[in-house]
Amino acid sequence: CVAVPSTQLAIGFFLPLLIMIFCYTAVIITLQKAKSYKRHKAVRVVIVVMLVFIACHLPYNLALLYDTIIYFEHRDCHAESLLRTAMSVLQTVAYLHCCLNPLLYAVIGVNFRSHFSRIFQNLCCVGKRYIAQRRLSRATSDIYMSTVRRSVDGSTLGHV
Predict the structure, then answer these.
(1) What angle do CA 57, 110, 19 make, to 5 degrees?
(2) For an engineered disulfide with 31, which of 39, 118, 148, 160 has Cβ 3.0 to 4.6 Å away?
(3) Phi-psi region of 154 (alpha: psi -120 to 50; beta: other; left: phi over 0)
(4) Is 150 a residue whose pLDDT tops 60?
(5) What's the fold here for domain 3-108?
(6) CA–CA distance, 111 with 106 (Å, rounded to integer)
(7) What is the rounded average pLDDT of the residues 68-87?
(8) What pLDDT digit, counting tens, does each position of 123-144 carry?
């Protein structure tokens, strides 16, 4: 009973946190060696991504740890209900984190914003081209069908 939440805490929070700390530390060290004037912005993005991960996941995992520790204690119904509600809300916030990373990169990262806007503009242009091709295709089909109808009617059979 206690093994599942403990494993979830270890694999779902501490392992990703350690991997992120290791990888982002390597990124920050590499950025500090770079002579680019934009390195401070990149470091800021890394720090914000880490802080948002911790802010989203730490409360849920602390509640999970608390729930695991008091698992065998007697609790009244009201306290149990409050804990379950808090766990649901905090779990939702933790899962919401998956959606936040792209938004963080979009809001904080200047290059990401410019690339994203270019991709969005290209998608809009492709969509417009697709619609234009469909209209052109429909017009071509209408012309073809009207030619077929006239030839079946015999109105253009003798004329070349």
Answers:
(1) 35
(2) 39
(3) left
(4) no
(5) Rhopdopsin 7-helix transmembrane proteins (1.20.1070)
(6) 9
(7) 80
(8) 776 555 555 555 555 555 555 4
Q: For the chain, where are the alpha helices, taking DSSP H only?
A: 3-9, 15-33, 39-69, 77-108, 110-153
Residues 6+ apart with CB under 8 A from 83: 63, 66, 67, 75
Distance of alpha carbon 27 from alpha carbon 43, whole angstroms: 8
Name the DSSP class of 14: I
Q: pLDDT digit string (tens) for 54-70?
A: 998 999 888 888 888 77
**Sign of the torsion formed by the C-alpha atoms of 99, 104, 105 and 106:** positive
Tally Cβ neighbours within 10 Å of residue 81: 11
Domain ranges of the chain: 3-108, 112-160
